[in-house]
Amino acid sequence: MLKLSHINKVYHVGDTVTKAQNDVSVQFRQQEFVAILGPSGSGKTTMLNIIGGLDRYDSGDLLIKGKSTKNFKDSDWDAYRNNSVGFIFQSYNLISHLSIMENVEMGMTLSGVPAAKKWQMATEALVRVGLKDQIHKQPNQLSGGQMQRVAIARAIANNPEILLADEPTGALDSETSEEIMQLIRDLSKDRLVIMVTHNPDLAHQYADRIINFADGQIQDDSNAFEGEAAQDDFSLNNTKMSYWTAMKLSYTNIRTKKGRTFLTVFASSIGIIGIAVVLALSNGFQKQVDQTQSDALSTMPVTISQVSTDPSAMASNSSTKTKTAKGNTITAEKSDQDKAQHTNKITSQYLDYLNKMPKKDAKNIAISYGTGMNLIRQVDGKYKSVTFSNTDPDKAASGASAMMSSSGSGINGSVYPVDRNGKQSFLKTYYKVVAGSYPTKATDVVLVLNKDNSLNINALKNLGFNVKEGQKYNYKDLVGTTVKLVGNDDYYTKLPTGNFIPETDYSTMATKAATQTLTVKGIIRVKSSDSDGILASGVAYSANLTKKVLDANKNSAIVAAQKSSNNSVVTGQSMDKATRESTLATLGGTSEPTNIQIYPTKFKQKDKVLNYLDKYNKGKSTANKVVYTDLASTISTMTGGIMDAITYVLIAFAGISLVTSMIMIAIITYTSVLERTKEIGVLKALGARKKDITRVFDAETFILGFGAGVFGIFVAWLLTFPINAILANVTGLSGVAVLNPTQAIVLVIISTVLTMLGGHIPARMAAKKDAAIALRAE
Ligand code: ADP
């Protein structure tokens, strides 16, 4: 069965060389009970370990059923230990955190025997060793003799051909020893049993053959075997521990140390808690900052007016102040302000350029024109002329001259920008509908309320309402109000003199084909007081409506006449250049905008918008430059940067505690490795591979790391409540700390990975442990 041929084994410790096996040659039968006797330190255990594949010989050969093991790989030895050999030790070496059943099954678990078969074979083995009634106990509930029986059951559970026992009765009283010897003798009836013992009496009483050992050599052999071993077919099944088994081993081990495990998990989770809280706060603050910024921005768009102040011109002018008076002449000069005044040429080319601005940088661009609108409304059954103006009609100049002076926003109401993707996101962002609905068509207009639900009285007066200050309206009184928009050609009649006069037959106008109906679609109110005043209280309409009016009126007769005349075609009076231009604009004869407002999507995008606008001016003469005003420039661009910097610093600190906990886990795993040395030896004796051992400890750190991650996130989440309560108290901001689920998951993964990294090195150390040494450890 087994043949040792000239086996040598030397141990070097420092300068001392111990010849533990000195040219040992011996053969064993297929079935016999061999006792090995000899003084302590003579090399008995070393021989047993070499036979069992727990230790390697230096030279010679071990033949198993005639097959040489010289070229055995680690995996062959693992399989050999698992399939063919059962070990029994003096100190039983049961895995204390597993049940008796699980201990007995372990060898089969390692070789992947199905659960039902495992259970059946383990039960048979336990019955055979006389422990039928103890199956459901834990190892530490048994006596020494019973524990050794469990160990024997484990050794024979998958019917190995070889049973190796190293002083199996060394720790037992004589009565129990006899029982165990009896049991081993029974087991030797159908296998080879080799037992190392100190006790010559027991050896002589039970064994078939006695070998005396001294100084690493066989001194005598009572029943030597010289026959040739049968050249049996000898094959081995490889072992492999499943991840699940590794997990279970670790889990049951961890469970036996609840207090320590909790402290470990808690300490490791502190880093995660720190980072999670920092991230939660930073998420929340960023949101608040973004909100504040976009609120602030909504009231402070980048503005391009027809006439604006060129900041660069202001700067260069200031240099003149440094000049000192010379001579006695006086120079007539423009004021600095006048010099800095710049007339923007907002050409269609420029509008095209604006249109091409990336939509992600500026979602809304509001373009206002100086055009007026010819509006009439039916009041008490009679049509009368009305306006969208906010100026007091009782104080304004009356009649045609009022119409003529109507450039700018006063007479026009407010224009809100059309979202560049075609949706009304501007209104939806800043305003909520309190009655009716958001406008959808160009002919839909809205009434803008102040935060306190008040409405500019002049807007109502100009719409033809007979209204007194403090008067109350129901929403439904105003929603659905219609106003007719009349084209120039229907509104003005050309007199034989060549002048034009506004018609007064409004009811006829109302029925003209070109006349459009504008409807008050909804009443809106600003959502947040931050954005109060973007649109003035009163009537607001889409920039698309202005476009429509312009398109309808640009070819009207009055516009054509005004274009070719220097005098007013209405009053016949002469006009200066500026008045003529604004008159033409009011009539819809100019396509040049009076004002452009660009709303950057986010505060951070504003720089891109400004860069884009600057790019247009590059290489252009001063006169052709388009100058903008950036009202929001006072808001420091630093806010975002500072937030980021603070977050990084805090995360760095929390990260340090994460690394600290990783080192701690490494130490704890290392301690666990030391504690479980015996277990490692037993697992190896049962055929576990190095990989399997690594896996057991990796599984343990996985459980700890994952536990720490989940626990940390849970605690961080709990912490957000008091943190938010305190912040709400101190700053008035609510719901600042918000834990982002994605970040939470990532943190759990980081915790798991880092702890596994920290624990992996001790795990590898455990795997490398020599099985023979591991089993010798106390
Ligand atoms: P026995 O089982 O007969 O008591 P051992 O086989 O345990 O003897 O030991 C044989 C000799 O080898 C002893 O001198 C022992 O000190 C030495 N020895 C055993 N294992 C080691 C080891 N891992 N390193 C160094 N010396 C060892």
Automatic annotation (TrEMBL):
This one is known as Sulfate ABC transporter ATP-binding protein
PANTHER family linked to this entry: CELL DIVISION ATP-BINDING PROTEIN FTSE, LIPOPROTEIN-RELEASING SYSTEM ATP-BINDING PROTEIN LOLD
Keyword line = Amino-acid transport, ATP-binding, Cell membrane, Membrane, Nucleotide-binding, Transmembrane, Transmembrane helix, Transport
Membrane topology is:
Multi-pass membrane protein
Chief place where the protein resides:
membrane
One GO location term (cellular component): plasma membrane
Q: State the Pfam families in the record.
A: ABC_tran, FtsX
Q: What species is given as this protein's source? A: Loigolactobacillus backii
